[in-house]
Design a protein that fits this description.
The complex is a heterodimer of chains A (453) and B (274). By secondary structure, chain A is of the alpha/beta class. Chain A has two domains: 171 residues, Periplasmic binding protein-like II (D-Maltodextrin-Binding Protein, domain 2); 228 residues, Periplasmic binding protein-like II (D-Maltodextrin-Binding Protein, domain 2). Chain A contains 18 helices and twelve strands. In chain A, strands 1, 2, 3, 4, 5, 11 and 12 form a seven-stranded mixed β-sheet that branches. In chain A, strands 7-8-9-6-10 form a five-stranded mixed β-sheet. In chain A, strand 2, helix 2 and strand 3 form a beta-alpha-beta unit. Chain B has 274 residues and is mainly alpha-helical. Chain B has a single domain, classed as MetI-like (MetI-like fold, Orthogonal Bundle). The chains are: A alpha/beta (453), B mainly alpha (274).
Chain lengths: 453, 274
């Protein structure tokens, strides 16, 4: 009898756990990952769209406010959201795309728009953009245009590269601040005066030790805030206009690499090993350990948080006067597989984001990106008189000569291969000729693997 | 006597040094969590912050819905542990003690599934849970543990195989059925292994990132690791806050470990066999 009682109590516990478990999760079972189909209601046709975006905690709050506002203005559209931290967002998105469950509209890192476009996951937005958006009112609509002239996304916010400089370090060395007329050679000559070793000698002094640098003239890493603008302004680059062939092995790129490798060997520019002694690649300038950096707009936040006395100016010119700034336009993309109804509702969201001054202003206040709408970008909401950096206009001026990062379907893969080989040259493990030749072959292999299959 | 004292001193010294090696990363993390961003990035690093920024901890609680994330993690980890203990011990018992056709072949198949990386099965799992309308709920995160995972099966099978069969025979003579033998004899005797499985499962679920990211959509359903990661953005690190949040998230693991620790040192009681 006692035994049976034990069995019953065991079964009762199991039942309780099951009930508890289903209670914990039952509430959400109705609203799964994909948006539910539209339904007829009294006030007109209701459409529900799933909106995917990556965010930090602070930007998530702002995004939700803007979504509430959108729903008030569009009572027939219900927005269900899906957010994740940046690093994990794409893992989730790629899984959802593979399973046919992707959001109807999502925020894509600018460098990934072509990946989704060329794999058939993103919708061609050309007709809608031509119909509803006046190109002259926006920055960066062309950043999502492919070689055939089709548009695959609408920028949500823009990151463009400028030259950041630490005014205190310039003042301490008694050196003039960077000018807009600088070439990369001018930058290096000044950076040498601002590079200081452990003994307090600058890179111009006899007996300077490039192996024990305490303060670098320029910090520099990877593509966006590293080699891309140097190579482009020297007349080189990595991919051709269609972004399907490598053009790495050229005399112009060799010249650009000679400038970079010389700077690293002399200790003026941070090389990949120098960067490892910092908390992160981006921490060198905020920590006050570098006089200058190539930086996108988002770096303003860290520089301000670190309390630096700094400003920004245009990136230097190449030997022939060519100037190029790297640009990334994080963009809204619509799911190719969404129904017409949902795609149109998603387009309403994009239009709301791009055209409404109030939305653009509120997002600009977060300080993460240059606004897309010119009227807001050119107002004090963005230019913020009296706040650092004083010369915020440099970001807008740089958009005149900005170029996207040779974005294509295999961007991440080819950048990885290029970096591997470039690092060998930067660290002196390979000659520039060898590194460029190897990078050319490796990048082309990645491209062929996608475009020639 | 003298040698004994010397030996003991050396042992303590070695233990002291090794515990220091273990503690330094934690102490560094604690110090980093109490710095301003500027101090955090300073080179050369400053170990002890000038002013302890206890406000970083307050900021963590203010910034994110840490309480909600913690509750979600507790639900997922708690139900997972319950599921793993129950299902793995049942299946492990069957493989260890029951006789049925193709037992060895099935066991090899179970072990074989351990070789499949999680990312390979994530898309089929996603599609299954979508069909079951379970996306954006906590269910997919713990329900799998109720279906007996291979590592737990293996662990429990080995533990049950080590229990002398005399116990089983004695129980049978007393009239116990197989379930009663499992529940009344084997489970109590396998407590150390169950504690090990509980800790592994709890830690695995507590720290898991990939599956919550894939299955969860709404911020209010996030588990703690995702909540901590969402303190940083695409461009901004907030590293000192993330470290503070990570340290806070360690507390439940420590509690579980302290609770389960006593079972670790126990061993099977062989005294009943003569």
């Amino acid at each position: 009898m006692k035994k049976r009682k034990g069995l019953y109590s065991w079964l009762a516990a199991l039942l309780l756990v099951t009930v508890f478990a289903s209670g914990c999760s039952g509430g959400g079972q109705q609203d799964g990952g994909a948006a539910s189909p539209p339904k007829e209601e009294d006030g007109g046709k209701q459409v529900e769209i799933l909106l995917g975006y990556y965010s930090s905690d602070s930007s998530d709050t702002k995004m939700k406010e803007l979504i509430d506002r959108f729903e008030e203005q569009h009572p027939n559209i219900k927005v269900k959201t899906q957010s994740a931290p940046y690093g994990q967002f794409y893992q989730k998105l790629d899984t959802q795309i593979a399973a046919g469950q992707a959001p109807d509209v999502w925020l894509s890192d600018g460098v990934y728009v072509m990946k989704y476009a060329q794999r058939g996951a993103a919708k061609d937005l050309t007709d809608w953009i031509v119909r509803d958006l006046k190109a002259e009112e926006y920055y960066g609509l062309d950043f999502n245009k492919d070689a055939e002239g089709r548009y695959w996304g609408v920028p949500q916010g823009i990151q463009v590269g400028v030259l950041f400089y630490n005014k205190d370090l310039f003042d301490k060395a008694g050196v003039d601040y960077p000018s807009e007329d600088w070439t990369w050679e001018d930058l290096k000559a000044t950076a040498a005066k601002l590079t200081v070793d452990a003994a307090g000698k600058t890179a111009e002094d006899a007996g300077f030790d490039p192996a024990s640098v305490n303060q670098f003239g320029l910090t520099f890493f990877s593509i966006t805030e590293g080699w891309f603008s140097v190579m482009k302004s020297y007349g080189g680059g990595v991919l051709d206009e269609k972004a399907e062939n490598s053009i790495v092995n050229t005399p112009e790129n060799k010249q650009a690499f000679e400038w970079m490798v010389d700077g690293m060997q002399r200790g003026i520019i941070t090389d990949p090993v120098d960067l490892k002694s910092f908390q992160s690649n981006t921490a060198v300038f905020p920590s006050g350990s570098a006089a200058m950096r190539i930086g996108i707009y988002a770096r303003v936040q860290a520089a301000n948080e670190a309390g630096l006395n700094y400003d920004v100016t245009l990136l230097p010119k190449g030997p022939d006067g060519k100037r190029v700034s790297p640009v990334i336009a994080n963009s809204w993309v619509i799911n190719q597989k969404s129904s017409d109804e949902k795609a149109e509702a998603a387009w309403e969201w994009i239009k709301y984001w791009a055209t409404e001054d109030e939305v653009q202003k509120q997002w600009t206040e977060l300080g993460e990106a240059v606004p897309v709408k010119k009227s807001v970008a050119q107002s004090d909401v963005f230019l913020k008189a009296g706040e650092q950096p004083a010369n915020r206009k440099a970001f807008l001026d740089s958009l005149e000569f900005a170029q996207t990062l040779d974005n294509n379907a295999v961007w991440e893969e080819w950048v990885g291969k290029f970096n591997e080989n470039a690092e060998r040259a930067f660290l002196g493990d390979a000659t520039i000729d060898q590194a460029l030749s190897d990078a050319d072959a490796a990048v082309q292999a990645v491209l062929d693997d996608f475009y020639k299959k | 006597m003298k040698y004994k004292l010397l030996g003991r001193s050396i042992a303590y010294l070695l233990i002291g040094i090794s515990s220091l090696v273990m503690l330094v990363p934690f102490a560094t993390a604690l110090m980093n969590s109490l710095k301003t961003y500027r101090e955090y990035t300073t080179v050369p690093p400053r170990w002890i912050p000038e002013v302890f920024q206890w406000s970083n901890y307050a900021a963590v609680f203010k910034l994110g819905n840490i309480g909600g994330y913690t509750m979600n993690s507790v639900i997922v980890a708690g139900l997972s542990v319950a599921g793993a203990l129950l299902s793995c011990s049942m299946v492990g018992y069957a493989f260890a003690r029951l006789r049925f056709p193709l037992k060895s072949a099935l066991f090899v198949m179970v072990l074989g599934t351990m070789m499949i990386p999680a990312v390979v099965i994530i898309i089929p799992h996603f599609m299954i849970f979508n069909e079951l309308n379970m996306l954006d709920t906590l269910t997919p995160l713990w329900v799998i543990e109720w279906l007996a995972q291979p590592f737990g099966i293996f662990l429990m099978r080995q533990a049950f195989m080590n229990i002398p069969k005399e116990y089983e025979e004695a129980a049978k003579m007393e009239g116990c059925n197989p379930f009663q033998i499992y529940w009344r004899i084997f489970i109590p005797m396998a407590r150390p292994t169950l504690a090990t499985l509980a800790i592994f499962t709890f830690m695995g679920k507590w720290n898991e990132i990939l599956t919550p990211v894939i299955y969860l959509t709404s911020n209010e359903k996030y588990t703690l690791p995702i909540g901590i990661l969402s303190l940083s953005g695409q461009w901004t690190g907030n590293e000192q806050l993330m470290i503070a949040a990570a340290l806070v998230s360690l507390v439940p693991i420590l509690l579980v470990f302290l609770f389960a620790e006593k079972y670790f040192v126990q061993n099977h009681n062989m005294a009943g066999i003569k």
